[in-house]
Structure formats: structure tokens, C-alpha cells
Amino acid sequence: MVVTDKGEYEARTVIIASGKRTRELNVPGEQEFKNRGLTYCATCDGPLFADKNVAVIGGGNSALDATLQLIKIAKHIHLINIVSGLTGDPIMREQVEASDRVSIINNVKVSAVLGNKFVNAIKIKKEDREETIDVEGVFVEIGLIPNSDFIKDVEKNELGEIKVSLRNETTQPAIFAAGDVTDVPEKQIIIAAGEGSKACLSAFRYLATHRF
Ligand SMILES: Cc1cc2nc3c(=O)[nH]c(=O)nc-3n(C[C@H](O)[C@H](O)[C@H](O)COP(=O)(O)OP(=O)(O)OC[C@H]3O[C@@H](n4cnc5c(N)ncnc54)[C@H](O)[C@@H]3O)c2cc1C
């Protein structure tokens, strides 16, 4: 039984494909400049910032991955990290730290995103001191939250992503999952679509091979 705010639906299989939502900065200017210089996906939007100065916000694997992608595209990258050091994979960290196209700014918080029609700067804050950095792009890379809170009966990993087998089975029979809400690596449309079709075929096979 799937319970929604519009009714209840009985089914013999369910496919969960509720995706992920981005963790936001919650600072002035973020909503205003979303998709106008401020983005949450370097893989998707990186090429729009060729030869531009940009900021990547974060200090973990997502931010390091975004920075490494942007090193090949952007002019200069300001990596803005809220804690005292980068926390991601050591090999990615070394590459980022070795690049003369990256300035790592630790122990600072983004306090605002500024611009006119498009982003033209960010404001950062260290203790009581505020500083403005001119950038044309802001990549918010502080993580994605899976929309999986509503389902309690399936196993999830430490990030809250639903664990699935190669056939998109969850740990509960008849419940399948696909796309960004699962622990399948890489969150991209083509992958989610492929996983969705795999989940449909698995649900079909489940129905065809069980007596009800
Ligand atoms: C800003 C941004 C830009 C991106 N750009 C690109 C790009 O250029 N190229 C690319 O390949 N990928 C891009 N991605 C990634 C891509 O959007 C995802 O990988 C893909 O959409 C995942 O598909 P999905 O069906 O798993 O989830 P989604 O597309 O997120 O769909 C999930 C759906 O489930 C609904 N939902 C959530 N919770 C519930 C619930 N409890 N009950 C019912 N419904 C629910 C949501 O409202 C949503 O409609 C981008 C992602 C973001 C955030």
C-alpha cells in the first residue's frame, strides 16, 4: 500500500524513484542567482564557465571532484571551505592542492552571493571580518540529500541512499528503487533513466514469477 496526500494505492510491486535534493547554503542571494551563475552541479554546468573565475563551496569529495573538473575549464577557482582543512579523498586533495589555478580558503563561511543579472561576487566571513571575492560562477558542492525519509523498511547506506542490487532490488521483496535516491554511483539523467528501466523490468519479472 502506498499512502499519498491524494489517496492510497494498492500494488504488488513498488518502484521508489524519489531522487535527491541539493543541500543549500541558505544565504542572501542564493535563490536569486540560482541558474544565473549559481549552480549545484559542476558536471552539468561546468562548461558554461570556460575561462571565468569561479568559487566552489565545500571541502569534501563533492567539492574536490567539482574543482578537479573545473581546473580544466575555468580560469581560477576559489575553493571556499568552512572548516580548517579539506576532508575528501587524499589523492584528489593532493591534485587540488598542487594546482596553481586553485586558491584554498579555509575556515570561512559564505555570507552572501552578489550580482546584478548574474553572479559577480561572493561575500565570505571569517570571524568578524568580511571580504568580497569577484567570481562569475558559484558551485555549491556541500552534498545532496536523498528523498528517502518516507520509507523506513529498506536498508540504506550511511548517506541515506537506498541500497539496491544490480537488478534494482531493495532489501524488501517487491520493493525496487532506481535513480538518485539509490546508492548507485553518479547522479546523472542518463544513469537514472537506465536504472529506471532496469527497475521496471525487474518489477515485471517479479510479477511474472510470483503467484498472488
Ligand atoms: C540543479 C541540477 C542540475 C542538473 N543538471 C544535470 C544535467 O545537466 N545533466 C544530467 O545528466 N544530470 C543533471 N542533474 C542530475 C539529474 O537531475 C538527476 O541525476 C536525475 O534527475 C535523477 O533522476 P531521478 O528520477 O532519480 O530523480 P529526480 O529527477 O530528482 O525525480 C524525483 C521525483 O520524485 C519526486 N519525489 C520526491 N520525494 C517524493 C515522495 N516522497 N513521494 C513522491 N514523489 C517524490 C520529486 O518531486 C521528483 O519529481 C542535475 C541535478 C541538479 C540538482
Describe this protein's structure.
This protein has 212 residues and is of the alpha/beta class. It has two domains: 81 residues, FAD/NAD(P)-binding domain (3-Layer(bba) Sandwich); 117 residues, FAD/NAD(P)-binding domain (3-Layer(bba) Sandwich), CATH 3.50.50. It is built from five helices and 14 strands. The strands form five sheets. Strands 5-12-6-7-8 form a five-stranded parallel sheet, covered by helices on one side. Strands 9-10-11 form a three-stranded antiparallel sheet, with no helix packed on it. The protein has a two-stranded antiparallel ribbon with strand order 1-2. It starts with a strand and ends with a helix. The site of flavin-adenine dinucleotide has 17 residues, from helix 5.
Helix and strand topology:
Layout: E1 2-4, E2 7-9, E3 14-16, E4 20-22, H1 30-33, E5 38-39, H2 42-45, E6 53-57, H3 61-71, E7 76-80, H4 90-98, E8 102-105, E9 109-115, E10 119-126, E11 129-134, E12 137-140, E13 144-146, E14 175-177, H5 189-208
Short précis:
With 212 residues, this protein is of the alpha/beta class.
Give me some keywords for this one.
elongated, three-stranded antiparallel β-sheet, FAD/NAD(P)-binding domain, 14 strands, binds flavin-adenine dinucleotide, five-stranded parallel β-sheet
- Ligands bound here? flavin-adenine dinucleotide
Query: In the CATH scheme, what's the topology name of the largest domain?
Result: FAD/NAD(P)-binding domain
Low-confidence stretches: none
Overall radius of gyration: 20 Å
Give the amount of beta strand, in percent. 25-35%
Q: Would you tell me the overall average pLDDT?
A: 96
> In this structure, how is the largest beta sheet organized?
5 strands, parallel
Q: Which homologous superfamily in CATH is the superfamily of the largest domain?
A: FAD/NAD(P)-binding domain
SSE sequence, one letter per element: EEEEHEHEHEHEEEEEEEH
Q: What's the number of domains?
A: 2
The tally of strands reads: 14
**Given the helix and strand composition, which structural class is it?**
alpha/beta
Give the N-terminus to C-terminus distance in angstroms: 15 Å
Name the shape in a single word: elongated
Widest beta sheet: strand line-up: 5-12-6-7-8
Count every helix, treating DSSP H or I runs of 4 or more residues as helices.
5
The CATH architecture of the largest domain would be 3-Layer(bba) Sandwich
Q: Helical residue percent?
A: 10-25%
The level 1 CATH classification of the largest domain is Alpha Beta
